Amino acid sequence: MPIQVDTPNTKLSPTDAIVVALVNNMPDAALQATENQFATLLDAASGLRPVVLRLTHIAEVPRESPARAEITARYWPIERIFEDTPDALIVTGTEPRAARLEAEPYWARLEQLAHWTSDNCVSSIWSCLAAHAAVLALDGIHRRRLPEKRFGVFEYSAVGEADLLDGVGPSLVTPHSRWNNLSTEELSAAGYTIASAAPDGEVDIFLREDRGLLVCFQGHPEYERTTLLKEYRRDVARFLRGERPDWPSAPSGYFSREGCRLLQRFRQFAESRRDPKLLAQFPLHEAAADLHALWQPGATRIYGNWLDHVAETRTGAHSRRELRV
Question: One of 35, 222, 224, 231 is an active-site residue; which one?
Answer without folding.
Answer: 222
